[in-house]
Design a protein that fits this description.
The protein is of the alpha/beta class. The chain is built from seven helices and 15 strands. Strands 1, 2, 3, 4, 5 and 8 form a six-stranded mixed sheet that branches. Bound molecules: beta-D-glucopyranose. Beta-D-glucopyranose binds next to helix 3 and strand 10. The site of beta-D-glucopyranose (BGC) has 19 residues, from helix 3 and strand 10.
Length: 247
């Protein structure tokens, strides 16, 4: 049984648990800390260290999902975290600071990997789009099960800003939108994504996937649209799957 510490870093919380990566399940209760504000590399690394101590995991392999574009070990964006992450060599830095072999991928890609292998994507062929609707919007696209990494569908231009400012769960809460108003806007976004990408399946992830029944009636896509099956743990499980020796 392969066990890995999975860490799911979000704009609001940093969560960790030990994951059995062969079965896609948590083997310990997940532990969550608030994301420090400002969410700088130094402050966030301190929280990661706490998670490693909590799990007695120093020196052992870690997989991490992180809310930014991650290319060649470097963070290349920072939408809901501190700007100092932009162009930051995250993998090398954390390897050194956490004293553990670590790999970091985009958080939505991580959730997508878990959903694709162990959740609702497992039986789906063709083009699958997973959207995580949380503080921001993350996306993971799979073609016949193969991930196209670092897509940022939440950052498509929308009205005077970008998609995530209108249809993230955070936008719904802060603008106090009803599920009807928010759901209809989400539908417009999904219709646009359908036009440009022709997906076969769309999976809605993030905490709001639990309330899918409240907005499902406002969605009229050609592709099937369904909530993620793995709910909140997909991010941690997928993060662990991306660890250096998880495969
Ligand atoms: C970031 C993405 C991330 C998503 C969810 C967006 O603001 O740009 O990289 O996947 O939030 O955390």
């Amino acid at each position: 049984m392969k066990e890995i510490l999975g860490i799911d870093v979000g704009a609001t919380g940093i969560k960790g648990a030990i994951v059995n990566v062969e079965e896609g399940v948590l083997v310990t209760e997940r532990i969550k800390y608030p994301t420090p504000k400002p969410a700088t590399p130094q402050a966030m690394t301190e929280v990661m260290k706490k998670l490693i101590e909590d799990h007695n995991w120093k020196g052992k392999p870690i997989g991490m999902g992180f809310p930014a574009i991650i290319k060649d070990g470097v963070a290349q964006s920072a939408s809901n975290i501190d700007d100092s992450w932009i162009d930051f060599p995250i993998v090398g830095f954390l390897n050194k600071k956490l004293k553990s072999p670590i790999n970091v991928i985009n958080d939505a890609d991580a959730a997508g990997l878990a959903e694709q292998k162990f959740g609702g994507g497992a039986d789906k062929k063709g083009l699958v789009i997973l959207l995580t609707l949380g503080t921001g919007i993350g996306s993971a696209i799979f073609n016949d099960g193969v991930l196209i990494p670092n897509t940022e569908l939440g950052h498509l231009k929308w009205k005077e800003s970008v998609v995530e400012k209108f249809v993230s769960n955070n936008a719904r809460e802060t603008k106090e939108l009803s599920f009807k108003v928010w759901g209809k806007e989400l539908n417009k976004v999904l219709n646009h994504l359908e036009f440009v990408l022709s997906p076969d399946h769309i999976i809605i992830g993030g905490g709001i996937s639990k309330k899918f029944h409240k907005y499902q009636e406002f969605l009229d896509c050609v592709a099937t649209v369904e909530p993620a099956q793995m709910l909140n743990n997909a991010g941690i499980i997928g993060a662990a799957m991306a660890a250096p020796i998880a495969k």
